[in-house]
């Protein structure tokens, strides 16, 4: 019986070389880092739909508040407010742009929400009593009202209302029209 100590078959060797092991660790590490970065980004941005939905709700509420205000020729306190067909028929106070002295939100006329047409103005996000709502300080809102013709209605009788609600780097914008369809209608 002879033992051949000088030859080793290739199948007898097993295992990895140090270079192969280091390369395996590097490749797996890169893959794990990539997966963790995707998970981190997903987790970080998972609240964005909630922020967008909340910003949309704020914009809808503000647009509804403004569009439900009257659009009359005279201030609602004017004695001729129910009968005036134009601003010259007002007894004392034709409705102008900007709130009258002592007037607070919700305003009695669409024009009271801005100080000038076509200029964006900040509008406070508040509850029905005018108090700030907790945890909504991440949102900022503006309103712009512009006279604009709409579907055959002249610009003097139609207003484009634009509400922007900003949160972080994103903005939700809603546009709506308010027409003078019943200028003398007083509740």
Describe the structure in your own words:
The chain has two helices and four strands; from the N terminus they run H-H-E-E-E-E. With 187 residues, it is α+β, with helices and mostly antiparallel strands. It has one domain (46-179). Strands 1-2-3-4 form a four-stranded antiparallel beta sheet, with helices on one face. The longest helix has 27 residues, at 18-44. The radius of gyration is 33 Å and the shape is rod-shaped.
Q: Which key features would you list for this structure?
A:
alpha+beta, 2 helices
What is this entry, summarized?
With 187 residues, this protein is α+β, with helices and mostly antiparallel strands. It is 25% helix and 17% strand. It has one domain.
Largest sheet, strands/sense/barrel: 4 strands, antiparallel
Overall tally of domains: 1
Shape: rod-shaped
* Pattern of helices and strands: HHEEEE
Given as residue ranges, the uncertain stretches (5+ residues, pLDDT < 50) are none
| Mean residue pLDDT | 85
Number of helices: 2
Helical residues, percent: 25-40%
List the strand order in the largest sheet: 1-2-3-4
Task: Please state the structural category.
Answer: alpha+beta
- Our measurement of the CA-to-CA distance between the termini, rounded to an integer number of angstroms, reads 118 Å
Number of beta strands: 4
Strand content: 15-25%
Work out the radius of gyration: 33 Å
